[in-house]
Amino acid sequence: MDITGLGTLVLLLLISCMAIYSTWRTMYRKRNLPPGPMPLPLIGNLLQIKRGEMVKSIIKVGNHYGPVYTLYFGSRPVIILSGYQAVKEALIDKGEEFSGRGRMVTVDKIFDGFGVVFSNGDRWKQLRRFSLMTLRNFGMGKRSIEERIQEEAQCLQVELSKYKETPTDPRNILVQAVSNVICSVVFGNRFEYEDLKFLQLLTLFNETFQLMSSTWGQLQEIIPFIMNCIPGPHQKINPIIKRLLEFVSERVKRNKETIDLSSPRDYIDCFIIKMQQENQNPMSEFHMKNLLLTVLNLFFAGTETVSSTLRHGILILLKYPHIQENLHKEIDLVVGRNRGPNIEDRSKMPYMDAVIHEIQRFSDIIPMNVPHSVIKDTTFRGYNIPKGTDVYPLLCSVLRDPTQFTTPDKFNPGHFLDNSGCFKKSDAFLPFSTGKRICLGEGLARMELFLFFTTILQNFTLCSKTQFTESDIAPKMTGFVNVPIPYQVSFVPR
């Protein structure tokens, strides 16, 4: 090809690109979606997302466009809601319209709209109603959920005593203790802390969350059509989840072989009984696939969030020993040293309640929330949001809303205390989200945090040779889950 022909080809390519971009731009502007940066064909707003800092980048965009704005993940528009007022208007005032579950590309291949967390429509309603009722019934059963948590808190206390004040990373032991609570409810039994299979299982959980929050996981969420074809660590997510499903499947098989229909032992037994009761109902969502994926949902949700909050909390108390000292005084006054704490003690311990609330607010475990979607064409603040559009109500923007908290970026238990030292509620305290998709394990998690924190501080003083800074304790706001920095702590008997 001569120079003239090459020049003509280049010119045609440039004209074609300009025509494609012009058409894309016109289509984009006609949709009356909330404002946002101009997306590019194929990659959307990828250039606005700084590598490895998805949450910070999204918040930065919001500082320019306001509390309701649009970002494009590839060619897919995603609506971002920022701040308490916008999130409240969507999830509470328009709760039905925003009650759908949005896409999570990193796990969609496995869950595919099944299980209580990632389902929609009647499937979600059936599974959520059943799960709430079953958890509530276990709270009133022969061994209540409170008793299961108390038992595990005492096992944890015994295990921590074995460290004999040796500095240790508390991550594994806390994950095991928290996971044992959900295991007790779902599988009917806890695991010993030395159980190698249990430890391997929890390692897989942790690896999944790390991969989802990594730069690779973030890129897969934004441009899946490209990342699904590229080798990298993100390709390990689905194989890991399949291994976890194999474990759940083994437990379900064991339950089926030993079940007593008149005396269910755990969540799996209750689900199997429900499957048998509805096996002639063609509209029933109680079948094996939903059982396996719902159990995995409960396992995920009931392990990582609470254990990460405990780890954040211990790190924060190492930074602020005077807060720890005040907690010791309140525990000694209300609970004493001769019995373990119970949930009734919480109403008499406003300082502990306030500190735990502030730990949850400040640590901000799931900063972006799990994505929602609108279940029908919706008008919101004058903008059109088509049915099926994904929506991210940013929990981090609510928990750090300066109109709701006086020092949003500082750890301050006073956010939840009035002038008399009594506990004070905040409407913007939404670590479990809100509305129809609020975390179904909220009650369980709140009970765990109180009983675990109180038991630990009743028996130990937390110490470290490291002098931690405010930067050390601040959540890193990188991806799907906020996890604290690695650290070591000594549990000194009181």
From TrEMBL:
Task: Identify the cofactor(s).
Answer: heme
Cell cycle as a keyword of this entry, yes or no, is: no
Q: Quick one: a GO cellular component term?
A: endoplasmic reticulum membrane
Gene3D superfamilies given for it? Cytochrome P450
The entry's keywords: Endoplasmic reticulum, Heme, Iron, Membrane, Metal-binding, Microsome, Monooxygenase, Oxidoreductase
A molecular function annotated in GO for this UniProt entry is: arachidonate epoxygenase activity
From which domain of life does this come?
Eukaryota
The residues that the entry says bind heme are: 439
Pfam entry (one) = p450
Where is this chain's protein located in or outside the cell? Endoplasmic reticulum membrane; Microsome membrane
Q: Which residues form the signal peptide?
A: none
The record's section on InterPro entries has: Cyt_P450, Cyt_P450_CS, Cyt_P450_E_grp-I, Cyt_P450_E_grp-I_CYP2A-like, Cyt_P450_sf, Cytochrome_P450_fam2
- GO terms for biological process? epoxygenase P450 pathway; xenobiotic metabolic process
**Protein family according to the UniProt entry:** Belongs to the cytochrome P450 family.
Any idea what this protein is called?
Uncharacterized protein
Classification of source organism: Eukaryota, Metazoa, Chordata, Craniata, Vertebrata
